[in-house]
Amino acid sequence: MNAKTHTLSTHRYFFIPAVVVGIGGLIPLGYLLIKAFSVEGTALLEIVFRWRNARLFLNTLFLTVGVLALNLLIATPAAWLTSRTRLKGKSIFTVLNVLPLAIPGYVMAYALLALGGNTGIVAQLFGKSIPRLSGYWGALLALSAYTSPYLFLNLRTALQGLDPSLEESAQNLGYRYTEIFWQIVLPQLRPAFYASGLLISLHVLGDFGVVSLMRYETFSYALYIEYTLSFEHTYAAWLALMLLTFTGCLLYFETKLLKQVTLHRAGRGTSRQSSLISLGTWRVPAYFYLCLLALIIVIIPAGSVLLWIFRGFDASALQGLVEALTGSLSVAIPTGVLCAILAVPLAYIEVRHPSRTSNMLARAAYIVYAIPPLAFALSLIFFVLNTVPFIYKTLPVLIYACTLHFLAEAIGPVRSSLYQTSPHLEEAARALGYPPLQAFLRVLLPILLRGMLTATALVFLATMKELPFTFLLSPPGYETLALNVWSYTSEAMFAEAAPYALAILIFSGIFVGLIIRHEGQT
What we know:
Helix 1 crosses helix 15, helix 15 (317-352) runs antiparallel to helix 16 (356-370) and helix 16 packs across helix 18 (395-419). It is built from 23 helices and no strands. It has helices at residues 3-36, 41-48, 51-84, 90-98, 105-115, 121-126, 135-161, 165-172, 177-188, 190-206, 209-213, 219-229, 234-259, 283-312, 317-352, 356-370, 373-387, 395-419, 424-431, 436-464, 468-473, 481-490, 494-521. The protein has a domain at 1-48 and 313-490: MetI-like fold (Orthogonal Bundle), CATH 1.10.3720. The two termini are 40 Å apart. The radius of gyration is 25 Å and the shape is globular. By secondary structure, it is mainly alpha-helical.
């Protein structure tokens, strides 16, 4: 059998599961539309054109813009200082700027809330209470600290990859470095700004834990309140659609902006590293800035959790901790394994059989990932109640939702392994008489296992921190680490929440350690 026939034969085995995954992620959205348009006439107009909807839109917009602006102020100087200067200890400051990835947004909110009030950390340590953060400013600070590593990592990578020839040419023409930075360096960082800005915006739009703890009403928070408190869920469906529209607009604008960017080299030459800059007398302000940033985004949140552990630890809480950990693992483990398995057909048809259809199927996973979790959970509820109501509020439904949502995170490592593997290996196995599927299992699958293990780890740790799906889809009485952190913190029971927050930090820290180790090897 020639290579082309082999390709088509193998393609058949992977096309069907890829279609099933794509349909499984997008069909529930159809039921969301059906529920939203179940009312007509004046009732529909009254639901859509409420002043509250405009207020929710403005609140969500202001929070998103505020987080993006604050992240620019936080991450841009830190990325430049750790990549383009001769400061000592840059690797330490790099690690400190990545560590907030180990602190989920709702844990960051917990830490900030635990500082203030009459019984807060500041009052206990210094005998004087400070106002407890809440509302817009509390949500802004917590989300900015939590999401700043996404922009920091993108900018740092982009700065390290810039070709220094343009900067050197500008220096030879007499430009000062400040002029070079604003006119030459920053414009070349636009792709990094756009990509990380989109990722940060998606996190803000999909966030529920921070805005609910800070009592700041956005679309996600209002959607949850509306669903849980109302008997008729039509308005909740419309809130979900409005949130999806907001997300769709962001995806559209990011795509349009990236199409306008052309930054590749036009001439010949070899790329090389930029020369590092000596800060001179500016070293002291630079160190002060980096230390202050580490204090705000790492030391205070982690220290707050540890202080509450030491001051209010109760051994009886260990039993609840074990139950919550078991609940988290019962979802995280199967979700991680399923995502790694399902990522194989999606990555395979995208890499080995590129076409409009295969690309569309692979992109379906990313579309589902971009859907805010509460909106997707609500659409899945409508789908389940109208098709298989007996599985509503069961663990398989929760695992199903987490699998579809986090599948996009698993595709990358598997796809990278495929790109590094020659297709001639499968052709050689076919020439030896192995059927297409057997050739894949014997030759290619062992090579993909490393990427699948990485995908499993990524999804596992992401699911351990997951909060919105658990609220709407978990069975009655089901507990996780994230649920307990949120529930205790919402009642200002910070000592009770501390063990669960610490457990999340430990598991998340493993993930951040893998990122830092990978960066050190590249």
